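Q: Predict the assembly, please.
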Amino acid sequence: MGKQSKAAGDKGAEKEATQNATSAVKSVVRPVDGQTVAADAEQPKKSWTIEDSEELYRIQGWGEPYFSINAAGHVTVSPQGDRGGSLDLFELVNALKQRNLGLPLLIRFSDILEDRIERLNACFSRAIARYNYPGVYRGVFPVKCNQQRHLIEDLVRFGKPHLFGLEAGSKPELMIVLAMLDTPGALVICNGYKDKEYIETAILAQRLGYTPIIVLEQAEEVDLVIEASHKVGIKPLLGVRAKLNNKGIGRWGMSAGDRAKFGLTIPEIINAVDRLKEADMLDSLQLLHFHIGSQISAISVVKDAIREASQIYVELAKLGANMQYLDVGGGLAVDYDGSKTNFHASKNYSMQNYAYDVVAEVKEACEEKGLTVPTLVSESGRAIASHQSVLVFDVLGTSDVSSEVPAPANDKEHLIIRNLYETYQSIRVENYQETYHDATQFKEEAISLFGFGYLSLTERARAERLYWACCRKIQAIVRQQEYVPDDLEDLEKIMSSIYYVNLSVFQSAPDSWAIDQLFPIMPIHRLREEPLQRGTLADLTCDSDGKIDQFIDLRDVKSVLELHDLHPQEPYYLAMFLGGAYQEIMGNLHNLFGDTNTVHIKLTPKGYEIEHVVKGDTMKEVLSYVQYDSEDLIENIRRRTEQALQDHQITLQESQMLLQNYEQSLSQYTYLSSSAS
Ligand SMILES: *Cc1c(COP(=O)(O)O)cnc(C)c1O
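A: Predicted assembly structure:
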C-alpha cells in the first residue's frame, strides 16, 4: 500500500502540472442527490451533457482517436482513427445480441489493429526522415501479447507493406511464427528458453526464406548454438540480449539489471564473443537486444536504456561482430488513464517521441564512432494489441445502501436512536463535517449497545438506517464542495453500491486482479444522463478477489466508479477498454467461467461486417478441461433420478425437467443470460 500511495503521490504532482499547462479541467457542478437537501443547493442545476461524460470518464485521454461519445450518449468506435467512419458501440452490441451472441462479449476491431501497425511504422519513418537516419526500421510483434490465430493472421497481413515480423518467446510460439509468417524479408526474432530442437528448427528455417535471428538469452545457449550449427551445417543468425544497467521502473523493473531472469551480463557477453570467435562464428552475431520491461512510463528511462545499448552495440562491432540490427525490445507504454504522466498506468511521451529518441540516440552513438547504423527493431506488443479489443458486459443487479427518508424518532425510542435522528435533522452546509463525526460515533455506540444486549435487532436496524440517511445527506453536500476534507474522503466509498457484473475478472481482466492494473471502464450508453451512483464492480465468481474497485482518475486512482441507476427491465452495459494485450491468454478458468464470445468486426463503406465469430466456451468444454466427460455426468444424474423415482422422492415430470435442464446447460455459455433484455 505504501508503494501504491507513493506512486500515486508522484502522479498527483505530475498531473497538476499537466492540468495547469492546459487548464482544461473545469469544475463540474453536480445536481444534488435526492430532494432532501435541495434547499442547500445554491448554484443552479446544470443539465448533464455528453461533454461532462467525456470529462468524467476521460475518454479523450485514453481513447483518442478510436473511442468517443455521440449525440445519443453512446460510445462510438472509429476503428480507423481520424481517417474513417465510426460505429455506435451500443447499437453494435444490440445487433450482436440479436444474432445470439450473449454477453460478456469481446469485440475485436481489426481496423484498429491495422491502424496501430500503421502508426508505429509511420512514427519510425518520420523519425528516420527527421534525423536523416541512413537505415531502416523493421518491427516485430511479440506473439506472447496475444496469440489468437485470427489476430496473428491480421497482423501478418497488415504488417506486410512494412515487412513487419514476429517474435517468439517460447517453443510453441516459434511453431506459430514459422507457420504463420509469410512476409519475405520480415524478421523472426527467437527469444526465450531454447533447447536443441528450438535452435535447430530456427537455423533450418533460413532455408524457407525466413530471417530467423536466435537471440542468446542464457550463457549456456552459446555452446548449444555452436553445436546445432555444426550438426545442421548452416551458419546461424545470432543476437545477444544484454542485461542493461539501466532498469525500467515499476512493475516490470526487474526485467533488466544483473538479477534479471534473461540476458547476458557484460562479462558473459565478452565470453560469448570469445567462444564464437574460437568457433569461427563471430560473423553470425548480428543483433543486440535488450528489454527493460513492459509499460515504461517515463521517457527518460527509455532514453537512458537506448544510450547504454547503443554503446554496447558500437563496442560489439569494434570487437569484430558483424553487427546489423539493434532490437530495443518492448516497453512502449499505453496511456490507460489518459493522464499523460509517468504514473504506472500512463506514459509521459507519445509514440512519436519514442521513435525520435530511439533513432536519434542510435544515430549519434554510431556516428561518433564512424559506424554504419543498424536496422532498428522494436518488439512493441502492448502498444500494438491493447486498443483493438473491447470487452462489453452487462450489470445483473446492484446492492445499495438504503436511500429511504427515515421516519421521525418518537420519545419512546432509545436515546441513541433519538440522537441519530436529531443529527440527521441538523445536517447543514455549515456543520456537515461535525455531524458526520457525530453520526459515526452514534452508530458505533448503537452497535456496542446491541452487543451488550441493550438494543434489539430491530432497533439496531433502525439505528443503521438512520446512520445511512445521515451519510446520504452529508454526501450530497460534500459533492457540491470544491474541497473535500480528508476525513470525508472515504464517504463516497462507504456509500457506494456494488454492481454485480456478468464477467469473471480472472478470465477477462486477470491483470486487474493479479497486479492491480488499471483499465478504463465506463458505461457505453446513457451518457447524456448524469451518473448519480458510485459503485464498485463484483464479478460472477464466488471469490472475494473477483472485483474491480480501482478505476482510472485524473489524479491518483478512484475507488468508486460513477454509474447510473439501473432501470427495471432495461439492460445496462459497461465496457472495459485497452485490454487487448496479455489479458486473454493470462485469463483462467476460476469457478469454470470460460472464454467469452468473441467477434471480429471490420468497417465497410456501408457499415460493418462480422469477419469471424468465435463462440465462447460451453459448460461441456470447460468441464472437459478438468477431465469430466459430459456423457458420464449425464449418466450419473440419470441414475440418481431413476433411484429417486423408485423411492417416490421425485415425480416423473420433475425428473424430466431436471434432466432436460441439466443436459441443455451443458451445451450453454458459462456466463449468465441476462433477464433484462
Ligand atoms: C513481453 C516482451 C515484449 C513485449 O513488451 P511490451 O511492453 O508489451 O511491448 C517484448 N520483448 C520481450 C523480450 C518481451 O519479453
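The radius of gyration is 30 Å. Residues 1-42 have pLDDT under 50 and may be disordered.
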